[in-house]
Structures are given as structure tokens and as C-alpha cells.
Amino acid sequence: MLVVEDEDVLADAIAEWLRREAFAVDVAYDGDAALERLGVNEYAVVVLDRDLPVVHGDDVCRAIVDSGGDTRVLMLTAAAAVRDRVAGLALGADDYLVKPFALVELAARVHALTRRARPAAPPTLRRAGIAVDPGRREVYRDGRYVPLSRKEFAVLAELLRADGAVVSAEELLERAWDEHIDPFTNVVRVTVMKLRRKLGDPPVIETVPGTGYTIR
């Protein structure tokens, strides 16, 4: 996710709430910084304040739409009039939320947009005896409930979504953590190690030397 909001307290609160939902979140406090991050990172959803300094939120939205990618835009604004909402959607925004708003509603809308930003997937991800319910954030191994941390859940979900393909440590780092993580960290290896221990025997997460991880 990318959160673009010039009120830093609100931006940080949104980011922290979404991180609790197991999203990897970057933050930009003006439109220019947002465009810079969009130029180097691929985001599933951008939570975008409309009235931004330096580069207006409308121009950021246009840039996202013109890029032709799959990024979804949730536009935030204090303008509640119907004409303002219509104008925002006409720019290409996928959803529109008026300030003030409840963080729980924002998170629900982000979850909905995330489902639209990736190819359709079954409500429950299943493979090798593992069942992951992304909505409830529940994991079962052969019917046994497996309690996981947010990062463990995010890594496992990405491996299941790969449908047997190998996912590199770099990809997992990008999708489950934010831009501030040290690219040379061993956090992915440690998280996978903890996942294996919690999921139990027989092991289902395979290491492909020099490539990454997979669940066959």
C-alpha cells in the first residue's frame, strides 16, 4: 500500500492501522513524494488525499491511471458534496471516502480494492493441507488452527497465492514489509523458519537454493 496524506499524524495513523491488517505500507506526505515512490514501486492500492501540497492529488491520480497498471486508488477528501465525489471518480479513482472517517471502514475498503487489484482468488487459499482465510486472517493445517503473527500470515498467504511457483526472498520482503526494511536483513529467512515450526510436520515450505521459497 501507499498512503499519501499531508497531515502527518493522520497519515501515520492510517499506515499503522493498515499494518495491523498485515499490509506492507509506505507513506508520502506530498504529491511529489508520492510520484517518486510510484515511479519505483508497484502498489496494489494507493490511499490518496485529494488536497495535497507540491503536486495536487488529482494530478497524482491521473498519473496512476495513465500508467495503465493495476493500482487501485482510494481517494480521501474533506469535500463531501456529490459533485466533488463525482469529480474524483471521474478522474479514475476506484473509491472515495469523505473525512472524517472510521479507520475500520477505510481498512475494509482497502481490502475490497486489494481483491480487485489482483486476479480473482478463492475466498480461502488452500494447498498441501493448509487453509488460509484472508478475510478472517485464520490459518489451519489439516484442520488444526495455527496462530500466526501478522508477518508470518502475510508471507504464508503470498506463498499460497503463488500457486506452486517459487517466490524470492526479495519479493516476500517487498510484499510483506515496507520500504524502510533493510534489504540485507535475514527477516524473511527467520519468518519462514518460524512458519515451518508452527505449521508442523511434514514440512510444506520448500527452499529452492538461490531462488526462493515454494509450497508444492
Automatic annotation (TrEMBL):
<dbReference type="GO" id="GO:0005829">
    <property type="term" value="C:cytosol"/>
</dbReference>
<dbReference type="GO" id="GO:0000976">
    <property type="term" value="F:transcription cis-regulatory region binding"/>
</dbReference>
<dbReference type="Pfam" id="PF00072">
    <property type="entry name" value="Response_reg"/>
</dbReference>
<dbReference type="InterPro" id="IPR039420">
    <property type="entry name" value="WalR-like"/>
</dbReference>
<feature type="domain" description="Response regulatory">
    <location>
        <begin position="1"/>
        <end position="114"/>
    </location>
</feature>
<keyword id="KW-0238">DNA-binding</keyword>
<dbReference type="Pfam" id="PF00486">
    <property type="entry name" value="Trans_reg_C"/>
</dbReference>
<feature type="DNA-binding region" description="OmpR/PhoB-type">
    <location>
        <begin position="122"/>
        <end position="216"/>
    </location>
</feature>
<dbReference type="InterPro" id="IPR036388">
    <property type="entry name" value="WH-like_DNA-bd_sf"/>
</dbReference>
<dbReference type="InterPro" id="IPR001789">
    <property type="entry name" value="Sig_transdc_resp-reg_receiver"/>
</dbReference>
<dbReference type="GO" id="GO:0006355">
    <property type="term" value="P:regulation of DNA-templated transcription"/>
</dbReference>
<dbReference type="GO" id="GO:0032993">
    <property type="term" value="C:protein-DNA complex"/>
</dbReference>
<keyword id="KW-0597">Phosphoprotein</keyword>
<feature type="domain" description="OmpR/PhoB-type">
    <location>
        <begin position="122"/>
        <end position="216"/>
    </location>
</feature>
<dbReference type="InterPro" id="IPR001867">
    <property type="entry name" value="OmpR/PhoB-type_DNA-bd"/>
</dbReference>
<dbReference type="InterPro" id="IPR011006">
    <property type="entry name" value="CheY-like_superfamily"/>
</dbReference>
<protein>
    <submittedName>
        <fullName>Transcriptional regulatory protein CutR</fullName>
    </submittedName>
</protein>
<dbReference type="GO" id="GO:0000156">
    <property type="term" value="F:phosphorelay response regulator activity"/>
</dbReference>
<feature type="modified residue" description="4-aspartylphosphate">
    <location>
        <position position="49"/>
    </location>
</feature>
